[in-house]
């Protein structure tokens, strides 16, 4: 599959994450809401607490410095997980409403499970970019693979890309990401989207954790072909990810703005658009601006650069200054070289 063709327009992904709040009904309604909002895809997370962490109350496993602070990792992931028995239904509903459904697997078992569901592509979550064996296993499936760079240093990105290429998978999309929840726009560093494309020769995008839509819209100008944002059906809920998620109304406005930004970028061309051609007549040209007689000297008093553009090109003004008119001409007449007396 040629990714460039696949993403001939920005691919907009609504991230379900933990915003189902433990309810299959909520998860289904979120998918339907994302479709109404204009998303192209819904993304799940496929894990169990045991596939991500250990059930331990050791200090190492206590979350610090985030919106989930003072919880143990295992306890958080019990609440955040999307039950595996829901997945088939969520894939089915997505297909019914016309959304692509894919997931972030967190271990090989999850990959195998998703393969059974014909998952069309995979996402490497920000914090898994250093899990090289997992990346290699996912890449070996030969499907497009989105890689978030949230906590990655350059050597991490280099190794992740190299790992995909080693197994012959060149269908990589690097997603600029700031692993902070929510992320401050001052840390978005969107210019890296363009740098990733230049450095690695892959398509790029944004996994957006900032509030609002500014970062996502601006990312289009830097070449983002995939934009992912967390999505919720209820901003009033106390869900784990709700505080940095967009609801249907916000997401719909975001989609509209992204589509407008795509159109605004256009393509490299010096050719004028139809509207530009239509209005070109309003540009300037040379007109006789004062009644003149034969033999009068051409000067700035009787020839002027004005709108519209039906007269002589303004570039001729210095050339004709000081020469003489060869006949009587009325003010408002388009200036023409044939009006000039020959020496």
What is the structure about, briefly put?
With 343 residues, this protein is α/β, with parallel strands linked by helices.
Radius of gyration: 30 Å
Measure the end-to-end span.
70 Å
Order of SSEs:
HEHEHHHEHEHEHEHEHEHHEEH
The geometry reads as: elongated
DSSP strand content:
5-15%
| Spatial sequence of strands, sheet with the most strands | 3-2-1-8-7-6-5-4
Largest sheet: 8 strands, parallel
What does this entry look like structurally?
This protein is an alpha/beta fold. It is 35% helix and 15% strand. It has 2 domains: 3-265, Aldolase class I (TIM Barrel); 274-339, Antifreeze-like/N-acetylneuraminic acid synthase C-terminal domain (Type Iii Antifreeze Protein Isoform Hplc 12, Alpha-Beta Complex), CATH 3.90.1210.10. It has helices at 3-6, 24-37, 49-52, 73-80, 84-97, 108-116, 132-139, 154-166, 191-200, 214-221, 248-265, 274-279, 317-320, and strands at 11-15, 41-46, 100-105, 122-124, 145-148, 172-177, 203-208, 224-230, 285-288, 303-306. An 8-stranded parallel β-sheet has the order 3-2-1-8-7-6-5-4.
